[in-house]
Prior knowledge:
Elements: H1 11-26, H2 33-40, H3 54-77, H4 83-100, H5 102-112, H6 119-124, H7 127-141, H8 150-169, H9 178-195
Helix pairs in contact: 1-2, 3-4, 3-5, 3-7, 4-7, 4-8, 4-9, 7-8, 8-9
Amino acid sequence: MTDQPYHHGKLREALLARAREVIEEAGVEGLSLRQLARDLGVSHAAPGKHFRDKQALLDALALDGFRSMNARITRASKAAGGHRSRFVRIARAYVDFAVAHPVLLAVMHSTKHHPDASDELRSIGEDGIAVARALIAEAQDAGELAPGDREMLALVCFVNLHGAAVLAAGNLLDGTSIDALTVATTDLLWAGMAAGPAPQGASGIGA
Length: 207
């Protein structure tokens, strides 16, 4: 590539945009600063002015990914409608993002849990689940959901929706649409939260 598709002052943004394309096409293993430089028609040293190494580039990708995903989740949470309809919209926002950007999402979560992850990344990585937790709290306070550990409930919702998204991204749903699965999952989660926690010893384990 000989023509630079960006202003000189926007090399960082161009590197991130091309890196997102590369990881979705070839995975993280196919990503290198030298190849990005070749793709953008700049010197091999130019990316080093913005990212000291590949891990720094992945950190920046994770931050941008969380910002984009969190913006979608926040918009969904503020949409018109009741708590349950907003809950479904939040779920769809997460699942749609996860299915559209499966490799980026994996980078986001793995980088957030990296021992050297920045405080900023750790914080922004929790913003999405915090939105869900806040909505659950609102619905509990309104009497639509039973009292319960909001932190745990939000985590259970995330685990279920993330699992659905991973299966969808891997084409493992055997013909079931991702939207149908998302709706069914949110119906079950909401019904479970409305019913409240099961009594101790009622899990059926060992029965």
